[in-house]
């Protein structure tokens, strides 16, 4: 396991909140990511299964691999028909040429491309797809960008993930000799309906809050809730009568085909 994989397993301490407040992609986005009717798909770095649930029904057999058994335990509760296995991007516990698609949802930045790309190529069938996605709040919207700034200020997080996401979307980063071609990069925008409290609690599922001393967390949460409540831009759209806010989201997609 790489040092980044070790850091990633820290999120298992908050697996319940992670599953409840992290926002999975809607069916309309999933339809763009993966066609229905394929034989087998792997959710690599599956966490608690936000993407796994979208693979069910699109593939006849779905595997979920994650290094953290606490995450996989939550996933197994909601996806009992999925085969869950502990593993990492660098060591995938599946046979050669066993899946038609590998999806990595908001987890690629924890993996070592030099080791993970050959391993993914090993488990992919010829012409299978590697689909890397980051499903995130759309920071081109002013109030979302300000919310991210407030999260960093209140919880003491860093922008490491932001830097890595930009790198993978902007740079020709494939390791030399990687057996992938036909790279496609696109942004799929959509909106997630969330309550104000859920927006605030979503901020507690990131590393800054999770790694903070326990005695600091109640005050951090109060500050996050107060910030969201005070921002007049965080309001339900006209015509909504359920008090939910339409949060602008963007799904960054990096896709390549096994050649």
Automatic annotation (TrEMBL):
Pfam entry (one): Methyltransf_11
Family according to the record: Belongs to the methyltransferase superfamily.
S-adenosyl-L-methionine is among the record's keywords: no
UniProtKB keywords: Methyltransferase, Transferase
GO biological process: methylation
Limits of the Methyltransferase type domain: 42-132
One MF term in the entry's GO annotations: S-adenosylmethionine-dependent methyltransferase activity
Organism: Actinospica acidithermotolerans
Top-level division of the source organism's lineage: Bacteria
Keyword Cytoplasm: no
Entry protein name: Class I SAM-dependent methyltransferase
Spans traversing the lipid bilayer: none
